[in-house]
Amino acid sequence: MGAEKVTLVKDAAARQRHLRNLLRDLKALQLMLDNDLFENDVQRIGAEQEFCFVDARWRPSPVIMEVLERVNDDHFTTELARFNMEVNLDPVLFQGDCLSGLESTLRNYLQTADRAAQEVGAHVLLCGILPTIRHGDINYENLTPLPRYRALMELLHELHSGPFEFRIDGPDELVINDALALFEGSNTSFQVHLQLPAPDFAAYYNWSMAVTGPLLSAATNSPLLLGKRGWRETRIALFQQSIDTRSTSEMVRERAPRVCFGTGWIENSILDIFKDDIARHRVMLASTREEDPLQILAEGGVPKLYSLNVHNGTVYRWNRPCYGITDGKPHLRIEMRVLPTGPSIPDEIANAAFWLGMVKGMPDDYARMKDKMEFDNVKENFFRAARHGLGSYLWWGSPAKRFPAAELLLKELIPLARTGLQKANVRQADIDHYMDIIQERVESGRTGSQWQLSSLERLKKEGKKEEALVATTAAMFNRQQQDMPVHKWPLAGMEEAGSWVNRYWTVGQIMSTDLFTVNENDPVDFAANLMDWHNVRHLPVEDEKGILVGFLTAKMLLRFYSQSENHPVRASVREIMTSDLHFVSPELSTVEALDMMRERQLGYLPVMRNGNLVGLVTEYDFVNVTANLMKEILSK
Questions:
Q1: How far is the C-alpha of 478 from the C-alpha of 293, rounded, in Å?
Q2: Is pLDDT above 90 for 344?
């Protein structure tokens, strides 16, 4: 999808033409493997860094096109959402000071992007999922204005034939039903590439899948989405569901999703994966650039395999196989896609070093992976790590036993990665530096996810959740400027959220979301008791379908009881509620909401999105805002 020259496959003729091109590319690849035409005596590494833009209020800032124009560097490219960006690092030899060199290069690029972003009122932030992203940010206005992204969205909607539903079960249940497929744009990642010799590709690929779960358990950094606590690496669930176009019947017959871990060990070569993906996944996009790869091979050239690469770009394996050409020589590599962006540059390079070291350090007796471990155990490890991070128990060994993730990492895999990096002749000082970061992170239990969750829990005791999310995001940015790995970060403080402009600017930041509701047919006495039990003065009233139809207030109850000494026992909420409602959206400014309440003499405002009640703002909320604002003014 990074290629500009692609087109939608819209009809049977285009599908047939593209499938023929795919089969021809596969045949050419087979010939290249049979004749040992790949670069096998050199190993290179590379990386792709995705990142967010945030504004002065620590919200997503859709400035990608403005920043791209200012940096004027082909290493930078667009992402799906206008508040994200990507920079591609040039490949380097896997040896010597490659890791510290990668860190230095990456830091320079991010500083360049940040300087350009500052010119348009934004900053660069490293985070798997931005804590302050809101449902209102997920809209087509924030889709990067390039034809390929619009085409991809249209195709996903066509294939999905209905609204997208996201269900992520974590400490907070997250259920989203949305007409847009843009939620994938909430994710950012740090993708690492490793070039491998073609004859050994299958063995290393299988081994890479085996260590993916343990790797992820130590690297999680995306625990929050729309203010809800999901998985320790919520990106995994969100990405898989946002690109899932399968029907219910296809799920029943176990058709693999486009975002997948894999379907089993590969037996022979990279061709096993490409054939499987072509067999399982419908052609979505085709390259507009054509070649005859067999003719090119016959003439002693190296084919680009355009069709194969485009199709491979529409199947999102977490260990993605890649075909490429460097300096005129073809090569094969693995793209590791599970790592989130952040928490810091040193953390990212340490994560990369950990994976690279583990893959390079593959024990000889694991070269035939199917004889050592069950694929289902390895796949289970991946999802356990995504859900629970360092708190997961993982299968390992032959015969397989379950170990606490931290124990497996400290006793087996971190030492193995150190050995693998030494085997690659990486500079010892770099090995010690980056692997010490991993070891200390695991020993402390302080991953990026744990830091965010601990900060949020602490801050929620001092203010509303929205304030805590802003403070956590601001603190994340502040810590990143210090270039310290996350296990050394102090927790976020509420003062880091900044002034009231950052904390109380919109209704969504001050509204209450933990609401008690009553049915319109409920007895009045039940509503009165509910208000008393939970010390609330306003109750939303819903009908049998859960649709908001009115509001009941303490004042209404007082009037009802005072006007009749013997009030009807069977009186229902519907008889005394008001159905004269004034709605606002979460994006409305608090100043506008306050003006509205004053002008219309309202004590509350229901907050709605897409016809659904999502919160409530009352006079009491504005009392809290005023108190905090007065404290802020007096402190200055």
A1: 51
A2: yes
